[in-house]
Design goal:
Elements lengths: L6 E4 L3 E6 L15 H9 L4 E2 L8 E7 L2 H12 L4 E8 L7 E11 L4 E5 L7 E12 L4 E7 L6 H8 L23 E9 L6 E5 L6 H5 L3
Parallel strand pairs: 4-10
Antiparallel strand pairs: 1-2, 2-4, 3-4, 5-9, 5-10, 6-7, 6-8, 8-9, 10-11
Amino acid sequence: MQISENIIYKNNQLIAFNKPSGLTVQADKSGDKSLVDIAEIYAKSQLHLIHRIDRPASGIVLLGKNKKSLASLNQQFQERKIKKTYLAVVKNHPPEKEGTLIHYLLKSQKKNRSFAHDEEKKNSKKAELHYKVIASIDNYHLLEINLHTGRHHQIRAQLATINCPIKGDDRYGFKRSNKDRSIHLHAWKLTFRHPVTNEVVNLEAPVPDEVVWQAFDF
């Protein structure tokens, strides 16, 4: 793939990509070439992964070019100073047009999925997000989601719990997978402070060129 076409931001400190669905962010047991592998070939240097998105999802992934930028962004993530906005396509309309979901997630390593509970369980982690229905077409609804925490499969598990599994996400209850094994979850916007200048940076990744995404008239 021509990874240069997926670059949405770069300078001496950072580089951001609009990751296509199906590409793993970092090397895993599949042995497939990852975004980090491809990006390091492009950059001709080592890059530092700052955050991740799921393999079947698409959207913004930010990488640091040095340890200083990595440390700065890691701290911003830990202090929840970074704003992450996702888009998700679901078939069922949520109970309310807008709301906040709070669950306690338990991750199963064996099944590689997370289970959402209404009450705290042993080893569970609190998960919180805010969603808003921003558009609807004949068969689907488009949700804008702001993450307040960053847990394993958080959006997928929490939406499934309110009977709104993401289109194509058969792991979390959607009736059938997409043909390309993607899911309609997109890391749309990312807001953070530049590690050197401290200026606010707002990134936005265009949604995939795919019929359902494009039906929402981006």
